[in-house]
Amino acid sequence: MDTIFGIRKLGRRLTWPVVTLGMFDGVHLGHQKVIEKIVSLANKTNGESIVLTFDRHPRSFLSKKPQSCITSLEHRLVLFGRLGVDITVVLKFDKKIAETSAEDFIAKIMYNSLGARVVVLGFNCSFGKDRRGNASMVCGFAHKYGFEVISCEPVEFEGEIISSTTIRKNIIQGNLQKAKGMLGRHVSVFGTVIKGSGRGKELGFPTANLNLHHEVRPPSGVYATKVFFDGKEYNA
């Protein structure tokens, strides 16, 4: 998967772009349904599957405070790649993006910059200033700009619609089995090992201190885990 930071750095015309848009925090089963759709459609048309996402959660910019996410940008990019996405375009969520109307977002980014031929959106996707953009609005511009719009239905787990908010809440509360069911994989954290206080040496076994990049974490406790590092898996 190619990752491009900034829409102006595309550098070429895309081939039959099948585009989706979203934060995709957690890349849960609902998100996976959307992303698998763009990958499938792109494969059928010899086109390219494009995920358009943001470098930070919009609330982080609007509230001026870092927001804890299920998956950091780095983590999301890994998961997008595993799903077979061709290109992820990462937009910096700044004042300019925050003040871009939904209509301008469709015209300038989806149409002019990406040349979208198909746009696939989640049922509750929102974008643009004041979150006024949604699947219904994009459908209204489909004829004008010559692209097809597909809106994906929500995915449920145990009778509840899967959402990033619900998963975040379950992880924080320690309901990891429910979070796992909604994510479609084990709960995981993505972090950078940092220097700690050296307590592992005193305890007699190695430990690792992680900077979790503002990812949510389960309550304090002892957990059976696996560590993935440099292409290898370790019990921890």
TrEMBL record:
One Pfam match: FAD_syn
Keywords from the named record: ATP-binding, FAD, Flavoprotein, FMN, Nucleotide-binding, Nucleotidyltransferase, Transferase
UniProt protein name: Riboflavin kinase domain-containing protein
Domain Riboflavin kinase: 182-236
GO molecular function: ATP binding; FMN adenylyltransferase activity; riboflavin kinase activity
Organism encoding this protein: marine sediment metagenome
SMART domains named among the record's database cross-references: Flavokinase
Species classification: unclassified sequences, metagenomes, ecological metagenomes
InterPro entries, per the entry: Cyt_trans-like (IPR004821), FAD_synthase (IPR015864), Riboflavin_kinase (IPR023468), Riboflavin_kinase_bac/euk (IPR015865), Riboflavin_kinase_dom_sf (IPR023465), Rossmann-like_a/b/a_fold (IPR014729)
GO BP terms in the entry: FAD biosynthetic process; FMN biosynthetic process; riboflavin biosynthetic process
Pathway the protein contributes to: Cofactor biosynthesis; FAD biosynthesis; FAD from FMN: step 1/1
UniProt family annotation: Belongs to the RibF family.
